[in-house]
């Protein structure tokens, strides 16, 4: 048999060379890192789209690996888009950039963050650091590609128990089949001080798993349909033992809840066991997220989603007995949704908000209906947040409240119902007590036609004395009207951080009247007297300090700080509050002029908003002192615990 020589040219060799070149290129993708221009940190969830609509999405490090042989070796234009972030536009209004895509090469793009909160990383799902693994940088988490076969997880409940952080989710997807776990998957992680990752870097979840490696049920209650939990809480019993409880519900199709009750965690079994099934007619029970708070020496657990309008004494016995729960409500005891009867306070016959047993806890949607039908006066609405600048009312749909030591106040992270995206807008607010007053809010996260629901704060991770807080929510197309789910990210949890020193979340707080003649300008942890107005309790760039005039011989008087005088020379005047100058152009619609009233005989001073009547015998100044914020709730509504 004769040998034939093999040609070193021709179509076959050309194809082989092309194949080897492509394979080599595939081993060295082109790296694009997208970073926050302000912090330099990689931005997750940034969409990079070519002119022919090929799409890549950055991983939790802000990286994406371009390994498409169609693109390698040529200049490619990428549109750059991300919820709450913005890439500069060119002269034609296109937000993107042309990059020379070279195997093994890299490019860095900077985004301006519009969100007040900073997106950090994805907590759940597959491929959290997929592109980082392809490109070679180390991942901060132990399992960057797959953990317990989880592909997607709904709404999170988290709590610190027995020195570790416990996490529980709703329905959870897996890669193997469209149906996954529907009876509360769970996991634990370590606190940063106990060997866990710094929360700014990530969470190493240790899932409770089945024999096949998929997440295990932790709360399978008998009956049709999934089991869901919320109201996750811990307390100590009379022996001092720490115990963990949750409310469970059984759900049929169309979100029909047909059973609810209380379960308790058994750590050895890694399971919740049923404690009691609640009478379905009971109007008050745990809901949302728990908040421990002590009033007059009594330890309570407050529950809310987001408003904490339910509370019960923090004992296992009270927790299991719906008859011992109280609701913060204007309805009379025994009143129900189908036949509401308001508790009217005499002599004004105005609805009396108070803590009551056997009464229906209201929701923002219920309050909105009362307002629409005229059953509740507008100045008695306490479950309505307002944009701090425009005053536009917004309806909070879900969220959580925690006490914040940096602010010395209760802080709320809540999603908006029916905002610029139906359930994708997240707001920040503060209040003096768990019940309120919740008045003004600032949007901190936005989404373009995408949902981000059930945001949950993680107070166990607060940093810098509470200055920096962390929260996460469910990123999903559900309820959004968007039929293009983001690959890998959809139906998963995304973590954010919020710096409470950012002046964009410096919001007006209530200031209370002590007597007719003087103003109580001390921010307290409990309201005292009627609220005269709202003002800032810390400085921001558009505000001025309002001082007690330490040199005035008259009774307590206020004056505007001399902005041209060194601060040391102002020590004689203690700061009362911060407000906007009278000369402020385009002042927020929520602000109003504050006038000084003087008694010419005694020299006493009092302060009232706009042209509101002052005390008898007092004369109003011709020019206002400053601009403060309206308090839109009637002084007859009290939030004292």
Structure overview:
The radius of gyration is 29 Å and the shape is globular. The protein has 641 residues and is mainly beta. A hairpin with a 2-residue loop joins strand 11 and strand 12 (164-169). Mean pLDDT is 91; it is low at 1-20, 515-527 and 565-571. 6% of the residues lie in helices and 39% in strands. The longest helix is centred in the first third of the chain and has 16 residues, at 11-26. A five-stranded antiparallel β-sheet has the order 20-21-22-23-26, with no helix packed on it. It has a five-stranded mixed barrel with strand order 27-28-29-30-31. A four-stranded mixed β-sheet has the order 4-1-8-6. It contains four helices and 44 strands. It folds into four domains: 14-114, Carboxypeptidase-like, regulatory domain (Immunoglobulin-like, Sandwich), CATH 2.60.40; 220-329, no CATH class; 379-500, no CATH class; 509-629, no CATH class.
């Amino acid at each position: 048999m004769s040998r034939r020589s093999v040609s070193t040219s021709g179509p076959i060799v050309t194809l082989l060379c092309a194949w080897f070149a492509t394979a080599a290129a595939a081993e060295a993708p082109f790296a694009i890192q997208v970073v926050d221009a302000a912090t330099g940190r990689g931005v997750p969830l940034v969409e990079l789209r070519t002119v022919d609509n090929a799409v890549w999405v950055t991983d939790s490090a802000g990286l994406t690996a371009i390994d498409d042989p169609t693109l390698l070796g040529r200049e490619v234009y990428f549109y750059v888009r991300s919820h709450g972030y913005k890439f500069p536009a060119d002269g034609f209004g296109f937000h993107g950039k042309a990059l020379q895509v070279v195997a093994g090469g890299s490019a860095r793009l900077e985004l301006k963050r519009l969100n007040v909160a900073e997106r950090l990383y994805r907590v759940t799902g597959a491929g959290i650091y997929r592109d980082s693994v392809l490109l070679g940088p180390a991942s901060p988490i132990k399992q960057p590609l797959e953990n317990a076969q989880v592909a997607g997880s709904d709404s999170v409940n988290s709590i610190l128990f027995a020195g570790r952080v416990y996490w529980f989710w709703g329905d959870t997807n897996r890669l193997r089949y469209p149906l996954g776990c529907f009876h509360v998957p769970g996991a634990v992680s370590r606190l940063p001080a106990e060997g866990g990752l710094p929360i700014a870097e990530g969470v190493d979840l240790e899932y409770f798993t089945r024999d096949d490696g998929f997440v295990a049920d932790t709360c399978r209650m008998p009956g049709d349909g999934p089991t869901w939990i919320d109201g996750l809480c811990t307390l100590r019993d009379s022996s001092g033992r720490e115990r963990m409880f949750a409310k469970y519900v059984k759900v049929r199709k169309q979100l029909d809840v047909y059973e609810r009750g209380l379960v308790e965690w058994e750590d050895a079994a890694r399971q919740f066991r049923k404690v009691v099934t609640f009478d379905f007619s009971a109007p008050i029970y745990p809901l949302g997220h728990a908040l421990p708070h002590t009033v007059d020496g009594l330890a309570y657990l407050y529950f809310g989603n987001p408003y904490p309008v339910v509370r019960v004494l923090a004992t296992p016995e009270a927790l299991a007995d719906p008859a011992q729960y109280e609701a913060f409500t204007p309805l009379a005891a025994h009143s129900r949704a189908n036949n509401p009867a308001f508790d009217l306070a005499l002599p004004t016959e105005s609805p009396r908000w108070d803590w009551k047993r056997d009464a229906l806890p209201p929701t923002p949607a219920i309050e909105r209906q009362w307002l629409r039908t005229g059953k509740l006066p507008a100045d008695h609405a306490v479950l309505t947040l307002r944009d701090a600048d425009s005053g536009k009312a917004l309806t909070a749909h879900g969220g959580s409240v925690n006490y914040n030591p940096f602010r010395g106040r209760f802080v709320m992270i809540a999603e908006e119902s029916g905002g610029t995206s139906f359930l994708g807008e997240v707001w920040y607010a503060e209040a003096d007590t768990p019940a309120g007053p919740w008045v003004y809010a600032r949007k901190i996260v936005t989404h373009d036609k995408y949902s981000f629901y059930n945001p949950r704060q993680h107070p166990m991770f607060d940093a810098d004395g509470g200055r920096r807080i962390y929260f996460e929510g469910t990123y999903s197309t559900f309820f959004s009207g968007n039929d293009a789910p983001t690959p890998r990210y959809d139906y998963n949890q995304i973590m954010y951080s919020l710096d409470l020193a950012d002046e964009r979340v410096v919001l007006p707080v209530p200031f209370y009247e002590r007597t007719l003649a003087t103003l109580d300008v001390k921010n307290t942890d409990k309201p005292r007297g009627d609220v005269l107005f709202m003002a800032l309790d810390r400085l921001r760039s558009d505000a001025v300090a309002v001082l007690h005039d330490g040199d005035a011989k008259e009774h307590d008087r206020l004056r505007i700080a001399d902005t041209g005088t060194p601060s040391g020379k102002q020590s004689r005047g203690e700061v009362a509050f911060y407000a906007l100058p009278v000369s402020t152009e385009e002042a927020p619609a929520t602000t109003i002029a504050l006038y000084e009233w003087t008694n010419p005989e005694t020299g006493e001073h009092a302060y009232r908003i706009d042209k509101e009547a002052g005390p008898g015998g007092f004369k109003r100044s011709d020019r206002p002192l400053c601009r403060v914020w309206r308090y839109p709730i009637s002084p007859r509504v009290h939030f004292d615990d």
